[in-house]
Write the structure tokens for this entry.
Amino acid sequence: MSTAPRLTALDALHRSLGATMTDFAGWDMPLRYASERDEHNAVRTKAGLFDLSHMGEITVTGPQAAELLDYALVGNISTIGVGRARYTMICQEDGGILDDLIVYRLAETEAGSSPYMVVANASNAQIVLDALVARAEGFDAEVRDDRDAYALIAVQGPESPGILKSITDADLDGLKYYAGLPGTVAGVPALIARTGYTGEDGFELFLKPEHAEGVWKALTEAGAGVGLIPCGLSCRDTLRLEAGMPLYGHELTTALTPFDAGLGRVVKFEKPGDFVGRKALEAAAERAETAPPRKLVGLIAEGRRVPRAGFSVVSGGEVVGEITSGAPSPTLGKPIAIAYVDAAHAAPGTAGVGVDIRGTHEPYEVVALPFYKRQK
């Protein structure tokens, strides 16, 4: 079996732009093109262009597609309107998070049924696919691996609506946050979504891999006058960190339930019928009520040293938490981190909290997430 990383449809283009490539979840992906800070700031103030073709698309069709997803996932999927999207999770029987997902309910087909597209994280796409296939037993529904059917390009930042408007026939003003609609972009068909993972307004374009290069070039041209630049995975991480958005493998793992992660709101006990993990999640919800688990908080450095995942959060010589993600924040001009911290030390402004950075306890301020919220 080949262990060579998979290449996206834009691979040659990234290399021609001088991208530094990295292996991410089995894909060769652009880490950065030039300066991570410049790429980050472009998304915050102008616009950035991302190749996200490593994400895993899984299509669920058939008369019982909604019932299957209600059973397989923790969300109330059957209530998603056509053209809308929902953030949800797929859990194990013990309540542990297998992945966090976005589910789109696509436009109705001629047969009268609405297919759903489940978008999984690259690192978990196969796990999610296998789980959905296993959970589909007994349902009149089909689970299809569509990872090779799509390239995914995102344009993010305050200038992104204007850039995309100039090359699409779609009504972007009518496209709400967490929605997706079919349209034409640079003359080719695409599903245009508006979910974002950067804290900024922006769009995700699902299209055929053979159309990816043409659309990337059309967006580059349309955004040239307003400061659009290509962006890699490195700035995507600092952008989502500032926006307080969880990353699977860091803030979310199989060792945590959605309630442990402070995301119990995505679990919909009121939906009809059973779903995988329901019993364990009911117990987790009860535990969270009586004995709150560690809380996910933001930490802002008083000094210059950058905390990394796995570093201990300390107070009074005791370990009171653990860093899940840390990086320098270009927007705040200081190192920041997300951490799970004991409830007693989780309130914003809690005094005496630090991070153990190679034996030195560096002082940090506890803040509520997110670190950054765009002005609407």
